[in-house]
Each structure stands twice: as structure tokens, then as C-alpha cells.
């Protein structure tokens, strides 16, 4: 493919309600959408949604970098674009992913190809509530909607979180698997205290209790979890195969969470899934802070390669989706429609703050 046009937009996508995380509530997505057109009519798009506190990449710096990359790629080949993004992966993986996956799609990657029949991928539901009565109401709603795995956010205060999880276990009562996500909210000592207080019954996994780069804390948390039989999962600590291998070597977790935006391309994401299994760990896939594009791509990969509940539910949080033929939620599963996805131009325009387009220069 020869790239003729690269379009970069910066979007601010409001959420239907704030998404409460240990490092602050998320009220909107800061998203970069890249569209690439080839000389023979090829077309693809990709997404980077930046979350302060999760990644070091910021929306302002990422948007400026995306503008620069757009100018570099116009007139080059798809192969050259992929190589450029792979060289950028260590410094700016989210931005690199937006461009690389747009090329993957434009060049007809098999996992992103137009479907003759819909795909269904079970996903988890977010369980929230102030007090046990609200938790019960929310869980009954999720159960009626078909969810069989739910996630609870903690990482705020050890005592309050312990009480919350006890309430969750009473409410769920074995009717669904429970995933607990701390989003790096604890010190090693706090994580050990909370893990020591938890009854692991019904808890499928406990995700990222400590800071991403603190492998000493990960080992201490893993030691505490081993004493109780509580499986751990790492998320923010995982940015590549080297991190996956370190997690296995140090016995830091049983599960490894992957997000497309950290692995740059579809093939690299699949390779990471296969490496996790080869190291006798279990992969979990999906981004809860992503718009339609990334969630669609993750669902396409999960349909082929993942056998646990996906976490690609970010598309459900915005007030409006970006696809003209949107992903659907049915019976606790994300449904990828037949055909190929297209962007809703009006929705994209509504949330666009800035836009730049790079074209191949025509002599004369």
C-alpha cells in the first residue's frame, strides 16, 4: 500500500457518567483518531485514548506527535509506516498504535476483515454502588443483562475497600465471577494487609494492587496472595513481552492483562497472548477506557484468541459511539456486526477539537 492521505483528529468524548478510578474520576475520553487512505482505495482507522495516571503519554504531547507523524507518512508505504511505528513503540505506544492499527486495517489484516456473520464476545460488567443496597440493585441489573463476570474498583482506602468487597461477595453470592481492580492504588504494605483480610471465595482475580514499576511490591503482594489462594493480575506493569516474561520469572501473577494500545499492532498483540500461555499464565484482554475503534479491534482478536470474559467495555461509557454501525451489547456480550465498520462522520465531527490532514504533494 502507498499512503496518499493521513487524517488526524483530537476528540473529547463525554461519558454518560463519571468513571471512578483510584487516580481520579474520568468524565470524558481524550482521544486521537487516525484515518489512512491508500492509493488503491485502501482505508483504515485507529485510535489512541490517553488516560493520565495510566500512561505517561499526555493528550497534548501525543496530539502534537501525531501531527508530525501524519506529515512523515504521507507518500510512504504501509511497510515503512509500520516500521516507523515500531521504532516509536517504546516512547509513545498509544500514538504508535493509532497509526499502526490504521495501517493494519487498510492493508486488510485477517482479524479485522469484513465479517459475513456477527461475532459475540462475552465481556464483564462494572459493578458500582454506595452501600450494599445500591450494589445489590446494580448487580441484579447486570445479572439480568446477561453478565457473568463483574469488576469492582478499589484502591482508595484499605479499610473501606475491605468492607466494600465483603459487601460485594454477599451480594454476588457466587452467581458471577468477581474481578477486583486496584489501579495501582496501594503500597506493598497496604496491598498485603488487604489481601490478608480477603476471603478469596468468588474472586477470579485481583488486579494491579501496586505501582506499575514497583516489582518489589509485586513480589510482596504475590507472596501475600499465595498464602490466601488469591490469583493476581498485572495490567499497568505490562507494556511488552519483556514485562510478560519478567512477571512469569518473578511469579508476580497468574493472569496478565493486555490492551491493544500498549502493543502497537494486531500481530504483536496476538504474539503477546500466545507468549502468556506458553509461560503458563492466563491472558485477559480489553480496555475499559477506549472508544469504539479500539474496542472493536480487541473484540475481533478476543473472538479468535481469548476464552475469558473480555474487558473491552469502554465503548459503552461515552454518551454516543463513533461507529455508524455500532457495536452492540446483547446478553452480556459485545456483538461485532457483520460487514465492516464505518465511522459516523457527524459523531466524530461533534467531538473534534482539532484536525489536520496530510496529503501526498502533487508536482506542479
Structure description:
- With 364 residues, the protein is α/β, with parallel strands linked by helices.
- It has 2 domains: 3-113 and 344-359, Enolase-like, domain 1; 119-336, Enolase-like C-terminal domain (TIM Barrel), CATH 3.20.20.120.
- 37% of the residues lie in helices and 24% in strands.
- The protein has 11 helices and 14 strands.
- The protein has helices at residues 59-73, 78-88, 93-106, 132-144, 158-172, 188-197, 215-228, 241-249, 266-278, 292-305, 345-351; strands spanning 3-21, 24-38, 43-50, 119-122, 125-126, 149-153, 177-181, 203-207, 232-234, 255-258, 282-285, 328-330, 333-336, 352-359.
- The strands form 3 sheets. The protein has a 7-stranded parallel beta sheet, covered by helices on one side.
- Strand 6, helix 5 and strand 7 form a beta-alpha-beta unit.
- Helix 2 (78-88) runs antiparallel to helix 3, helix 4 packs across helix 5 (158-172) and helix 5 packs parallel to helix 6 (188-197).
- The longest helix is centred in the first third of the chain and has 15 residues, at 59-73.
- The chain is globular.
- The chain starts with a strand and ends in a 5-residue tail after the last strand.
- The model has no long low-confidence stretch (mean pLDDT 95).
Amino acid at each position: 500500500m502507498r499512503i496518499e492521505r493521513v487524517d488526524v483528529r483530537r476528540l473529547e468524548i463525554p461519558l454518560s457518567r463519571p468513571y471512578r478510578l483510584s487516580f481520579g474520576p474520568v468524565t470524558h475520553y481524550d482521544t486521537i483518531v487516525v484515518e489512512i487512505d491508500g492509493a488503491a482505495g485502501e482505508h483504515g482507522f485507529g485510535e489512541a485514548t490517553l488516560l493520565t495516571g495510566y500512561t505517561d503519554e499526555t493528550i497534548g504531547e501525543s496530539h502534537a506527535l501525531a501531527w508530525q507523524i501524519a506529515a512523515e507518512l504521507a507518500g510512504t508505504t504501509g511497510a515503512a509506516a509500520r516500521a516507523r511505528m515500531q521504532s516509536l513503540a517504546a516512547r509513545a505506544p498509544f500514538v504508535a498504535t493509532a497509526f499502526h492499527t490504521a495501517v493494519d486495517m487498510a492493508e486488510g489484516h485477517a482479524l479485522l476483515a469484513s465479517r459475513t456473520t456477527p461475532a459475540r464476545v462475552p465481556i464483564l460488567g462494572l459493578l458500582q454502588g454506595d452501600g450494599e443496597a445500591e450494589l445489590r440493585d446494580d448487580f441484579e441489573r447486570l445479572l439480568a443483562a446477561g453478565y457473568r463476570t463483574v469488576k469492582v474498583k478499589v484502591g482508595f482506602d484499605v479499610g473501606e475497600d475491605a468492607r466494600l468487597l465483603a459487601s460485594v461477595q454477599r451480594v454476588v453470592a457466587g452467581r458471577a465471577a468477581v474481578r477486583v481492580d486496584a489501579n495501582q492504588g496501594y503500597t506493598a504494605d497496604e496491598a498485603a494487609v488487604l489481601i490478608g483480610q480477603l476471603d478469596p471465595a468468588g474472586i477470579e482475580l485481583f488486579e494491579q494492587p501496586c505501582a506499575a514499576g514497583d516489582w518489589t511490591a509485586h513480589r510482596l503482594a504475590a507472596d501475600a496472595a499465595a498464602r490466601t489462594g488469591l490469583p493476581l493480575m498485572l495490567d499497568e506493569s505490562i507494556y511488552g513481552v519483556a514485562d510478560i516474561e519478567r512477571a512469569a520469572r518473578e511469579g508476580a501473577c497468574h493472569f496478565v492483562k493486555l490492551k491493544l494500545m500498549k502493543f502497537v499492532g494486531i500481530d504483536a498483540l496476538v504474539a503477546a497472548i500466545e507468549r502468556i500461555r506458553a509461560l503458563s499464565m492466563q491472558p485477559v484482554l480489553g480496555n475499559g477506557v477506549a472508544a469504539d475503534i479500539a474496542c472493536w479491534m480487541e473484540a475481533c482478536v478476543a473472538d479468535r484468541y481469548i476464552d475469558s470474559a473480555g474487558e473491552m467495555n469502554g465503548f459503552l461509557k461515552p454518551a454516543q459511539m463513533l461507529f455508524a454501525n455500532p457495536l452492540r451489547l446483547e446478553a452480556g456480550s459485545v456483538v461485532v456486526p457483520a460487514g465492516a465498520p464505518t465511522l459516523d462522520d457527524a459523531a466524530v465531527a461533534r467531538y473534534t477539537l482539532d484536525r489536520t490532514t496530510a496529503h501526498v504533494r502533487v508536482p506542479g
